[in-house]
């Protein structure tokens, strides 16, 4: 099934985005250059500018966040005042996005002055440099990862992330609400944002404006955690299964055995898909919950359809099972 309204978006990341996302985890404090928070970060990798501070700018990765650790700070502090000012001005002349001084070191006054002059933010972090670089790299990779928005409601069922999609009016939100009543958790309703994380997994999250809210026909807008508690929502979840609500006319021929598992390609990742026929009297929530648990079993190496097929083949060929 083609996802209605889906589009891949290349993300433009600013220093403000980096600060907002990593402020707590990276223990960041803005010390100067607030006017430059809208500067763009051109590359996800993190750079330690040792050669640049020594005056060598060939191959300098100026588009990256610049991290000044203990070694870089000690080197700059050892320079004569006039030479230090010259080196630091040449460094800021490269139009870098921002500077982070780690290990909670004191930022030199001339660095603060250059930060304000060039409108380049300078941060200070309490983290050890190598730990900061590792954590900041993951944050940046997530920020620049390709994204797409799809129409569908995303829930978590016993650890399995399920995207319920289908044509408008098929009952996606009502089915998700039924599952939430049974203990599932809401990630997003109606519109879901997908991105690829550093491990290659598809991560689903809500659009900020509708986070934790659902629209139920006949009821209106509801705030899920207010009705069902904070355990009924998730900020984001790995996508494991797509459950497509459909009618018999939408599917030419269903494989009733379950061995031929269709998939959906989203951002280049193949995700298992189940086609759930909508018909009077069918409990769609029970069917999707069963499909999610079956997917969990498959991940653990147990395939019920394959096991039954093997038993039937053994029975027809007069094997051990057939002789019992």
Low-confidence stretches: 1-5
Number of helix segments? 10
What is the annotated CATH architecture of the largest domain? 3-Layer(aba) Sandwich
Distance between the termini: 44 Å
**What is the CATH homology-level superfamily of the largest domain?**
P-loop containing nucleotide triphosphate hydrolases
Please summarize what this structure is.
The chain is an alpha/beta fold and 324 residues long. Helix 4 packs parallel to helix 5. The protein is elongated.
Describe the protein in words.
This protein has helices at residues 15-22, 50-53, 70-78, 81-92, 109-118, 129-144, 172-181, 224-228, 284-299, 304-316, and strands spanning 7-9, 28-32, 46-47, 65-68, 99-101, 122-125, 147-151, 153-157, 160-166, 185-188, 191-196, 202-206, 213-216, 220-223, 237-238, 241-246, 263-266, 269-277. With 324 residues, it is α/β, with parallel strands linked by helices. The chain folds into two domains: 13-144, HprK N-terminal domain-like (Udp-n-acetylmuramoylalanyl-d-glutamate--2,6- Diaminopimelate Ligase, Chain: A, domain 1, 3-Layer(aba) Sandwich); 147-309, Rossmann fold (3-Layer(aba) Sandwich), CATH 3.40.50.300. α2 links the parallel β3 and β4. The model is unreliable at 1-5 (pLDDT under 50).
